[in-house]
TrEMBL record:
Record organism: Peribacillus butanolivorans
Listed InterPro entries: RNApol_su_b/EpuA
Gene Ontology cellular component annotations, sorted alphabetically: DNA-directed RNA polymerase complex
A Pfam family assignment: EpuA
Transmembrane segments: 33-59
The name this protein goes by in its record: DNA-directed RNA polymerase subunit beta
Key words, A-Z: DNA-directed RNA polymerase, Membrane, Transcription, Transmembrane, Transmembrane helix
């Protein structure tokens, strides 16, 4: 008699474990990781460009489109690397 009750208890525990595993929620990603990385890199690129544009035109007093010219950046690099 005791052996049957022990077996029933073990069976109930196994059933409960199976039910718990079935109730676990499977996570489905709406955006894959590679797409998240691309979005973050795009946002960083946009932030750098808009920061340079606003910084050069508002703070620097230059024309907004001049920030995209090569001569502007060579001038900035020359100022930074200038010997004291």
């Amino acid at each position: 008699m005791e052996q049957k009750s022990v077996m029933r208890q073990q069976l109930n525990e196994e059933v409960m474990e199976v039910e718990a595993k079935q109730k676990r929620r499977i996570r489905v990603r709406l955006l894959p990781i590679w797409l998240r990385l691309l979005i973050v890199m795009g946002l960083i690129f946009f932030a750098v460009l808009s920061g340079a544009l606003l910084g050069y035109s508002v703070i620097g007093g230059g024309h907004a489109t001049d920030v995209f010219q090569k001569s502007t950046w060579t001038h900035i690099i020359d100022i930074v690397n200038k010997d004291a």
